Amino acid sequence: MTPFDATEFRRVLGHYPTGVTVVTGVENGSPVGLAIGSFGSVSLDPPLVMFCPGKSSNSWPVIEASGSFCVNVLADDQAALSSLFAGRDPDKFAGVAWSTRATGSPVIDGCLAWIDCTIETVHEGGDHWIVLGRVADLGVSRPETGPLIFFKGGYGAVAPSAD
């Protein structure tokens, strides 16, 4: 037994800032997506990224079945979009403009950057899945904008230091 509970675990790890992404896919031509904070690069050769959706997610099984996904890195002015995709609304894309690239997964208009991937492998990780994706295409949409950050239970922004 650990000397702490889930609330303490979440509180302490909340002191580590994370970027905010929306992972998207398609089901029968309709877009689906979910907000994800646990995202990172894994390998340059081959180009691999990872993210960790919760096992209780309704969107992840649909994205997994499609075989591909796009990670949309949110810009610092997109907190409302993150909140929308963190919810369980069945029509999260209502009023959200998007296009597609290599895999056909949605790239959300106005995101900071996007990474379009095919699913390489999925591993079990406690109450989450660990998804590895092989990058098929990627780009930066708004290089002048900073990323949306989640820190200590709230959204924030970060600016690069001047060199």
Describe the structure.
The chain is mainly β and 163 residues long. It is built from 3 helices and 12 strands, in the order H-E-E-E-E-E-H-E-H-E-E-E-E-E-E. The chain has helices at 6-13, 59-66, 79-86, and strands at residues 18-19, 21-27, 30-36, 39-43, 48-51, 68-73, 98-100, 106-108, 113-125, 128-140, 148-151, 154-157. Strands 3-2-6-9-10-5-4 form a 7-stranded antiparallel β-sheet. The protein starts with 5 loop residues before the first helix and ends in a 6-residue tail after the last strand.
Strand order of the largest sheet: 3-2-6-9-10-5-4
Distance between the termini: 47 Å
Compute the average pLDDT: 94
Largest sheet: 7 strands, antiparallel
**Which percent bin holds the helix content?**
10-25%
Query: How many strands in all?
Result: 12
Which regions are unreliable across 5 or more consecutive residues at pLDDT < 50? none
How many DSSP helices? 3
Q: What's the SSE pattern?
A: HEEEEEHEHEEEEEE
Radius of gyration: 16 Å
Query: What proportion strand?
Result: 35-45%
Shape: globular
Structural class: mainly beta
